Amino acid sequence: MTLLAFLPVAAVDHVLDGYVKARETGNLQVLVDAITHDAQETVQDGVQSLRRILANSPSLCATTFLQNVGAELGANPFLRQVIVENDDGVQYCAAFDQTVRYRTLSENLAIPGFTETLSVVTLEGRQTPLLKITQSFGRDRAVSALVIASPMLLREAMSLTAEIDYLQVALTSGTSILLRGDAAVEQEAERGDYLFARSFAGEIPLKAEAAISFALVRADYSPLDVGFNVVACFLGMLTLVLAIQYARKADIAVFDLERAIVAGEMKPYYQPVINLKTGKLTGCEVLIRWVKKNGEIIPPGVFIDYAEMSGLAIPMTLSLMEQVRYDLEDICRQVPEFKVSINLFEGHFRDGSIVDDIQSVFEGSGISYRQLVFEITERRPLDDKAAANRVMTAMHKLGVRIAMDDAGTGHSNLAYLQTLGIDIIKIDKIFVEMIKDPRTPVPVIDGLIAMARELDIEIVAEGVETQEQALYLRARNVVFAQGYLFAPPMKLSAFLVLANALKPVGHESNLEPGFAVA
Ligand code: C2E
Ligand code: CA
Ligand code: CA
Questions:
Q1: Are residues 272 and 385 in the same domain?
Q2: Which helix (H) or strand (E) holds 443?
Q3: What is the mean pLDDT of residues 226-242?
Q4: How many domains does the chain have?
Q5: Three-class SS state of 422
Q6: Is the CB of residue 288 below 6 angstroms from any atom belonging to ligand 1?
Q7: Is the CB of 319 under 6 A from ligand 1?
Q8: Domain edge (last residue) among 147, 170, 192
Q9: Which ligand 1 atom sits closest to the C-alpha of 482?
């Protein structure tokens, strides 16, 4: 009898076990499928690069050949090297004018339906294995392209898979390409200790496997803690996977993005920033749009992550800054207090070339450094704080200012903002949205405002859509705001019409003293 009383509990447990097993194994499957899909696309892109090089080069290693190699290396971010060699490994030439030292880790496998073959290699001094795609040429020569095996895993995704106990990408012959954790879990998976999933790339000889401890994921489903961690982690993965697939499907190949940058299809749109006290224009935020030749306008949400992942974010920003200089020089000369805000990527704060880029674009231009603001989002943490600090110090030396974008959504606290030397915070629209009427306080916003005041940091409110929100902010002495209430981001011609109507004129400007000039 007593035993029977426990039955429902045991049954619930059993049902929950089954549910967790099915659901988490499904999630794991999505992950390994994404990995093989990603690797397959990368290899196929590599094959296309190799074929274009060969199709457009009359002879191997001649100038045209090397130029074509250079062009493909620029267009395909996952392509790392191109080598011409013979069967004995004697090299005739390679990109970057190098003799490439590498080790071969696997046999050469055929790619069904292709004339190219596939093997795994590592470059001397490097750990990350590369996939070598080889096309034989003539009697004993071969041309090979080396590509990154799994771009997805090299990037952010790795941290999203932190909970995974075992992850392996391998050739179907068994040669491991990437391995994390212990392959022995495969046996334990049979005993039910681990959940296990495997995926074969349909068109290249490559597979991916992953396992996760069942006890661990099961614990996350305990009634007290309904698995938020695991679910959140997998949701993150899923978003990434979908983003990658969307980008691929929408045919936004990196090649396309790079071509679009070169062709000048990446255009700055300008959203006015308004002074809430005077109703005048005080500046603008630059927001990128991909304006295709057929007139289609693609918003940044579609390509921005892809640009960041592929390394194209840096040249994209440079091209944007050049256009901004050209577009806004006149208004910046006429209105000395006019401010231009430009969004940067996390990567800009790692390598420091942004400081040179800012100088090369704006030095001696009609836009002075003190009219420039650079925004860094708080949504993503800055991984290398020391490097970020160095870059920001160099930027401050030039005289430009730095804004923390999307303030309140991420990782910053008082101390963090202080150590970074942030000059401006931009209150995110999710907080502004909370303002329903001018008399009901919104504690989060009031807190952000108080914090900024204490640190002597200027405030800009984003996403202001209603009169009530504008009034609430103005009552708390928030002076600068942008949002659909005033204007959406606009193309240059429309922005200039509005700017002329709203600009404060020279020194007769009715801007409040004290913030008119930084
Ligand atoms: P963000 O920097 O937070 O930019 C503000 C976004 O809010 C813009 O979206 C803008 O169009 C939108 N917005 C403006 N006013 C309102 C409003 O009243 N209500 C609502 N709901 N939205 C408003 P957009 O242009 O689609 O840009 C999205 C994000 O893409 C930007 O968010 C920024 O993080 C990124 N981004 C855009 N251009 C660039 C760029 O040139 N470089 C970098 N690094 N990131 C960019
Ligand atoms: Ca921004
Ligand atoms: Ca923002």
A1: yes
A2: helix 443-454
A3: 53
A4: 2
A5: coil
A6: yes
A7: no
A8: 147
A9: 15
For residue 329, what is the enclosing H or E element?
helix 313-334
**What does the pLDDT look like over 76-133, one tens digit per residue?**
888 999 999 998 889 999 998 888 999 999 888 888 888 999 999 999 888 788 999 9
Residue 111 lies in a domain: yes
Are the C-beta atoms of 316 and 288 separated by less than 8 Å? yes
Q: How far is CA 427 from CA 304, 390, 432, 459, 501, in A?
A: 21, 25, 7, 7, 26
Does the beta carbon of 484 lie inside 6 Å of ligand 1?
yes
The confidence band for 239, taking pLDDT boundaries of 50, 70 and 90, is: low
- Which of 261, 271, 274, 287 has most ligand 1 atoms within 8 Å of CB, for mutation? 287
| Beta-bridge partner residues of 194 | 213
CATH number of 429's domain: 3.20.20.450
Which of 310, 318, 343, 428 is the best mutation target for the ligand 1 pocket, counting ligand atoms within 8 Å of the beta carbon and taking the most?
Answer: 343
Task: State the DSSP H helix or E strand holding residue 262, giving kind and residue range, or none if neither.
Answer: helix 254-262
* Rounded CA separation 198/208 (Å): 6
Residue 344 CB less than 6 A away from ligand 1: yes
Tallying the residues shown for the chain, one arrives at 518
Residue 183 has pLDDT above 90, yes or no: no
Residues 171, 188 contacting (CB under 8 angstroms): no
Total Cβ atoms within 10 A of residue 409: 15
Q: Is the CB of 174 under 6 A from ligand 1?
A: no
Query: pLDDT tens, 406-432?
Result: 887 776 666 677 778 899 999 999 999
- Kindly state the tokens that stand for 498: 């509005």
- Please tell me the distance between residue 158's alpha carbon and the centre of ligand 3 in angstroms: 26
Q: What is the pLDDT of residue 294?
A: 87
Name residue, tokens 């007290």. 224
How far apart are alpha carbons 365 and 369 in whole angstroms?
A: 9
Identify the domain containing residue 72 by its residue range.
40-147
Cβ atoms of 161 and 237 within 8 Å: the answer is yes
- pTM of this structure: 0.57
How would you class 159 by CB atoms within 10 Å of its CB: exposed for 0-12, middle for 13-18, buried for 19 or more?
exposed
Residue 102 lies in a domain: yes
Strands 130-137 and 297-298: unpaired
Report which DSSP code applies to 298: E
Q: What is the 340 CA–ligand 3 centroid distance (Å)? A: 15
Q: Is 312 in the pocket of ligand 1 (CB under 6 A)?
A: no
- Answer yes or no: is 51 within a domain: yes
Q: Which of 115, 130, 147 marks a domain boundary? A: 147
- Beta strand residue intervals within 344-430, DSSP E: 372-377, 401-407, 424-427
Cα 165–chain centre separation:
26
For the chain, the farthest-separated pair of C-alpha atoms sits apart, in whole angstroms, at 91
On whether residue 120 sits in a domain, the answer given is yes
Ligand nearest to the CA of 428: 3
Strand partners of residue 148: 130
